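[[Local backbone shapes]]
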Amino acid sequence: MKQINMENMGLSQRFITESSCYSGLYVGRVVSQYKDLYRVATGDGELAAEISGKLRFDAKTLSDFPAVGDFVMLDRNEDTAGNAIIHNVLSRKSAFIRKAAGTSNDEQVVASNIDTVFICMSLNNDFNLRRVERYLGIAWDSGAVPVIVLTKADLCGDELPQKLLEIEKVACGVDVLVTSSLAADGYKPVQDYLGSGRTIAFIGSSGVGKSTLINRLIGQETLQTREIGNDDSGRHATTRRELIAVPGGGVVIDTPGMREIGIESADLARAFADIDELSVKCRFSDCTHTREPNCAVQKAIEDGLLSAERLASYLKLKKEAKYEGLNSRQIETEKITAMFAEVGGIKNARKLAKARNQGKHTR
């Protein structure tokens, strides 16, 4: 098998340290998944793998299963004697999560251990500010840094300056890149975010040009595209997520097109930083920005500084993420409470931590 540079694949010291806790197992990174079968990259090459019965039994939600981008512990690092067995998933430094299709409360990891999330949107019929707000909320919550990538600038014509003004109003503190698949150097702005050990995930609707951009970055037509109309250059033909090494350093993760994406959790304070800042000036600390007097958010709408559509999007996402009626501080408290739910709440978590510390001092 062909040797693989695992440092370039993102195997940093934090994962090496954690992997050393598993004696007799080998570390690898999940590069693709099809149903219950995984392709995993190790220092000695790629191999097919499946999860152990114990890992399957212990998994409480879909997010407990391995996902593309995960570092996992395997029983072997050579492609011999059938499929390798995945025994453990190392802790994720970041994870792009969406609400799983067809379920009420389960969540699915789209990609993990990402440094940068490229939110791709074409400058033609796909252009949708409300969708960008949704993606930004999830991306900030993932632990990765979002970047908005506007594709197919060649199809935008004279409307580009206006669309850039519109996107900058919702992209608070986020880099915005403009690309074109027709120009020879149209992908160059994206390339600057890559480098050895770095992982970038491409997120966006089908047909926005994610696969075309990735093909340009890796220098070959690895990902298939197909024609879908006169105003679009192609659509990703596969439904699988895939991690691909870039010759110049780093790896990219392509994802299947997701026009709408359900959310379980979102960092709305960062995705809607303008509304969050205005909220501080409201008369009431628990202002819902709907009917209360002296509401700074409603005043900004009246003065033309904020669009009513953006506020409606903010309130919609708060409701969807079960944050309706909460301010930004209360949302953070809600998220922390959910994190400690498995140990009986924050008070029990504090008791456990205190007991452990006392145990250390008495040894």
